[in-house]
Structure of Heme exporter protein C:
Amino acid sequence: MNWTWFHKLGSPKWFYDISGRWLPWLGAAAALLIAVGTVWGLAFAPPDYQQGNSFRIIYIHVPAAILAQSCYIMLAVAGVVGLVWKMKLADVALQCAAPIGAWMTFIALVTGAVWGKPTWGAWWVWDARLTAMLILLFLYFGVIALGQSISNRDSAAKACAVLAIVGVINIPIIKYSVEWWNTLHQPATFKITEKPAMPAEMWVPLLVMVIGFYCFFAVALLLRMRLEVLKRESRASWVKAEVERSL
């Protein structure tokens, strides 16, 4: 098996060049998908037979919640790559993705509270899934704080990687909490092995929004990583050439 592509991921210059080609396409896809999904979900999807129009918060809440969990898994993978293969770009990805994941977790918690008020009659309950999502937010804060408080870059990278790897145990707790405990939170909206419980007019725009959120995450992450790469490689000749080309 040819692992050339994997070793290229460790090259800041290669990453900067290839990410510059992907960004316009990802940005256009994110804008189009989120616009279509928002209009479709909020204006054209039928109201829920039980929750009425209050269910429409699902088109923000579910994509944000899915992305928040996926982002933390990415942090753990980047942590393993950084510790095992010593790729500096893995630490760059980890440090740059953590704030985005934290914001997505915050959005999921806030929209969940907005949804919970008319559905459960309360803004917040100590439900197993809600509590696990709150813990996820604190884990993100921990990764961000470690990265900023430790002055030595290598030590900070190792500490953040370890926390990301240890904290990933919270992800299956979030996913299966509804099945393991008696909770108020409804079961998963999407399941790979089962047909969606919602009609297509409801879940198709939701799927569009989920894909759009992933494209947005990719754009935000690549932009942050490109800036961080330029900072860390500021003395490299290719960075100086890139700066001169842009002037």
In short: The radius of gyration is 20 Å. The mean pLDDT is 90.
